[in-house]
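Please decode residue identities from the backbone states below.
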């Protein structure tokens, strides 16, 4: 990896792309420290440092500290990701969207629809974050929000504009940088926040050496398992029939369809994390009482068996659902039949479609189980630490598995692998003449 970066810096155009990407990331970090107007810094700080900061800590890590400052980009790029997921789910359901996808320029049209949908999603997420923070902290982080019309409109417009600004920065990296702009934006936020989280792990624990060793062990094992699962592929053989035109023969070759064990990345984790925050948001509208306190303690503080069991089931189920949608949108069986290809022993058409779906679901079970375990790993570590150190209060600050949350580690490893592959492809393309001599 280091050698690849060194070679990339030797080429002027790649060096400019890397420097441009670094400049955009610096701008993003500056924006992460610009707070929204009207924020009560004392209420926000007490909330983040309090015992009910589980979900907030994860959101803060994934946003690169923007939530800690309640910055104008506190939503990050997640409204766009949520909008993208919704569009992909609706494509096979709504015939008109399916027609648009198959038509020339359909991909660009759906991408434009995604941007349009990201705006209301940013507004909804802004309201949700503020309401959840208010319900967890017991005191409003933005006094007057919801009652002062001008302040409310200003906050929502500012946070929505901040989200679109973050998306625009990601697109700049994609177009003029080294690619994968939105992923790199999220990656940079995680990496920028990780040292502070690690320092908090050391300072807030009575067993700092054990927690640091546990963090290193979890990270190393996590990286190895993530690479194995992410790179795992089931290859389905494909044969193309021979076609004779005049004196020439076309086709007749063989290839394969690579079906990844985890073809959906960390999207089920993000989607499940968004869904599981709804109980804490809805209960904030209820009167005070035992039910409200229980739901807040479970779904707001990111703790308890009910929370982790629900989170595991959501991640497991969303992995299957999203994998089916992605395979369905690719129309693999239809494309094979159109190009004269077939799977040996399987009839073209519906039989091929059913076979691909069956194989996909079989290998997706491993991917779903992997993502589910990654999702509940902080709960498992919390349970183990409570058994080993019953007198220590386990919170988000001293949980080694939350220094780099499971979804964060998947993002970091995935982005590093994809970025290095892109750099290697660029290096091979620019040095192609050396390979043909």
């Amino acid at each position: 990896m280091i050698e690849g970066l060194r070679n990339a810096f030797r080429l002027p155009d790649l060096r400019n792309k890397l420097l441009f990407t670094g400049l955009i990331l610096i701008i993003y970090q500056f924006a992460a420290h610009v707070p929204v107007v009207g924020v009560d810094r004392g209420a926000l700080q007490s909330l983040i440092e309090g015992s009910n900061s589980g979900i907030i800590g994860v959101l803060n890590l994934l946003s690169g500290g923007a939530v800690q400052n309640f910055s104008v980009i506190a939503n990050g790029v997640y409204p766009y990701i949520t909008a993208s997921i919704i569009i992909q789910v609706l494509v096979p359901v709504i015939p008109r969207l399916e027609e648009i996808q198959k038509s020339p320029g359909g991909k660009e049209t759906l991408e434009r629809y995604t941007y349009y949908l990201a705006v209301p999603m940013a507004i909804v997420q802004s309201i949700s974050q503020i309401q959840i923070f208010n319900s967890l902290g017991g005191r409003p982080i933005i006094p007057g929000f919801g009652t002062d019309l001008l302040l409310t409109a200003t906050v929502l417009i500012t946070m929505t504009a901040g989200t679109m600004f973050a998306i625009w920065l990601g697109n700049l990296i994609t177009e003029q940088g080294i690619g994968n702009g939105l992923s790199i934006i999220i990656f940079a936020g995680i990496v920028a926040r990780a040292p502070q989280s690690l320092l908090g792990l050391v300072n807030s624990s009575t067993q700092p050496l054990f927690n640091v060793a546990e963090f290193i062990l979890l990270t190393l094992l996590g990286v190895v398992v993530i690479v194995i699962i992410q790179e795992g592929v089931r290859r389905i053989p494909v044969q193309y029939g021979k076609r004779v035109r005049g004196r020439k023969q076309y086709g007749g070759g063989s290839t394969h369809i690579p079906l990844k064990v985890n073809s959906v990345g960390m999207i089920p984790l993000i989607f499940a994390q968004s869904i599981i925050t709804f109980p804490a948001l809805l209960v904030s509208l209820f009167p005070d009482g035992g039910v409200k306190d229980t739901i807040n303690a479970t779904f707001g503080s990111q703790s308890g068996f009910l929370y982790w069991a629900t989170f595991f089931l959501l991640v497991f189920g969303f992995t299957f659902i999203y994998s089916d949608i992605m395979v369905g949108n690719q129309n693999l069986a239809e494309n094979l039949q159109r190009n004269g290809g077939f799977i040996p022993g399987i009839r073209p058409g519906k039989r091929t479609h059913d076979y691909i779906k069956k194989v996909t679901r079989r290998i997706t079970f491993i991917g779903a189980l992997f993502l589910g375990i990654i999702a509940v790993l902080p709960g498992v570590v919390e349970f183990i630490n409570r058994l080993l150190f019953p007198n220590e209060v386990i919170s988000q600050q001293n949980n080694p598995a939350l220094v780099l949350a499971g979804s964060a580690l998947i993002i970091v490893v995935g982005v590093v692998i994809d970025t290095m592959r892109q750099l290697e492809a660029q290096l091979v393309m620019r040095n192609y003449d050396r390979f043909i001599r």
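Observation: The two ends are 26 Å apart (CA to CA).
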